[in-house]
Amino acid sequence: YLRQIYIHQPNRLYARSLIFTETLYRMLHYDRGGAIVTKYLDLHLHPETFVRLVCGLSSYDEKEVGLDTNIQWEIEYGRKTNGTISTVNANGEKVVYDIDMENPTFLRHAIRGQGTMYWHAKGPVPDTPVLIKDSWQADGRIREKVLLGRAKGIPGVIEMLGHEDNVAKTTNFRPANFASDGFVNSTLARVILRRSGPTLEKFDSEIEAIAVVRDTIQGHCNMLTGGILHRNVTIDNIMIVRGRGTLRSVIFDLDMALLAHPSERPPRCPAGRMGSRLFMPVSVIRDYEEQGMVQLAQDYLDDLEVLFYVLTKLMLGFTGIG
Fold it and tell me: Which residue intervals define the domain Fungal-type protein kinase in the entry (predicted)?
């Protein structure tokens, strides 16, 4: 049920619920770092705590019940009709974007992990559609804004128009001095990207689909020459470019990217490798399945292997245009 709450309330930072019987009760907390379940308490021995939990979970304060108040909705007859996102532009100034309700929001259905969310939006500048990306970035990873800043001006890589760091932290939702073997703090980051067109799966013709794959390889090469290795290519993070520029695609979603020179890389991220299994190179899947193997460093050849899987998805996963 909490997973359904996340899917239907995409501006949720965390979700909490209460389970109780005639004599016992416990609270459950879920966020992008995982779950916390309290021990059972006796309802008759700890009634004050029970009342506090019920009052807290029933609050009308959106922030208190785990919602991101930077995102607001207009509701008619119980359904969202319009929405806005408040964030900052490249100069650090507050900007309000109107959510494009005609384009569905892309979100991952898993609770734990990056919780990647893409909002189609319209900014204050006319005829400049944007893509606002929310993602939870684990401590130890290079921040996406750093990689997008490094990629500025590289042909074939999406353009960043602004960013907001530290929107929320999973440590702030947990008890003081919380520690667990499987827990790594994640920080919600919001980046504003220039939207040039739909993703690859919305191709208009077979020629366009193949041309976009070809130009994505060129854009990936340009990025590598600029010192960035992407490491997370999928059919969903290749955007079609129509009517401008020399390349017919831009690549985005640099959550898993690394600076290509080993001396610039941070220590290994304790959160591990994430992403769509369908578009993972064989060497990474082997690391998951055959624990004890010497882990291989992922390189540009693995990304080229994944681009072959993107091409295979186009050929075998679609009956035609649309």
Answer: 1-166, 184-313
Contacts of 58 (CB under 8 A, 6+ apart): none
Residue pLDDT, tens place only, 202-247:
999 999 999 999 999 999 999 999 999 998 899 999 999 997 668 9
**Residues 106/59, Cβ–Cβ less than 8 Å:** no
The single-letter DSSP state of residue 155 is T
136 touches 32 (CB < 8 A): yes
Alpha-carbon span 168 to 56, nearest angstrom: 20
Question: Residue 35: which of 64, 65, 14, 7 has the closest Cα?
Answer: 14
Antiparallel, parallel or unpaired: β 34-37 and 41-42: unpaired
Tell me the one-letter amino acid at 26.
Answer: R
CA dihedral for 62, 67, 71, 76, sign (positive or negative):
negative
Tell me whether residue 167 is exposed, middle or buried, using C-beta atoms within 10 angstroms of its C-beta: 0 to 12, 13 to 18, 19 or more.
Answer: middle
Query: pTM for this one?
Result: 0.86
pLDDT of 132-145, one tens digit each? 999 999 888 888 99
Please tell me the distance from the alpha carbon of residue 137 to that of residue 174, in angstroms, as a whole number.
Answer: 17
Amino acid occupying residue 269: C
> Dihedral sign, CA of 142, 143, 148, 150?
negative
